[in-house]
Amino acid sequence: MEEQKNKKKRIGRIIGVVCGVIAFFLVKQFVFAPESFYEAMQHAVDELNKSCPMMVDEQTRLDNAEALSDDVFQYNYTIVSLVKDSVNIKAFEDGMKPIILNDVKTKPALKIYRDNKVTMTYLYKDKNGVFITKIAISPDLYSDSK
Are residues 62 and 15 in the same domain? Predict the structure, then answer.
């Protein structure tokens, strides 16, 4: 009988320790969890958007940025002196894509996005807010293997 009581106590202790360990990891995961990369991107968006809109050159205004998902970060621009009908979209894309790609590959501030394989998108509108084009720079374009 005494042996049964000791056995129940040991089982109770083991269950208590297991529950304690599980509770510790759950609390650690849900209460003290590091922020997700999406949350980190959202914080970056919030900080950047405090400065928007801002002119990046004489023709281009950064209106805002968006974290569209865990792996897509988008800049939204307006070309302040153009209307869509006057833009050769193919020539615009052909001229902008190499510049953007080089920035994504080389700018130290974008390293965290490269490390996390984020697709960087650049959406352009004309001075009237009409969509012109969207240029996407995916990880396969900027990775070292290229």
Answer: no
Q: Tokens 């999406």 appear where?
A: 38
Residue 21's domain comprises 1-33
Q: Do 26 and 11 belong together in one domain? A: yes
**Sheet of 60-69, strand order:** 54-55, 60-69, 72-79, 119-125, 131-137
Q: Are both 65 and 114 inside the same structural domain?
A: yes
Residue 58 contacts by C-beta under 8 Å, 6 or more apart in sequence? 81
Kindly report, residue by residue over 7-66, the tens digit of the pLDDT. 445 554 555 444 344 555 445 455 555 678 899 889 999 999 999 999 999 999 999 999
Q: How many CA atoms lie within 13 A of 122 on its CB side?
A: 18
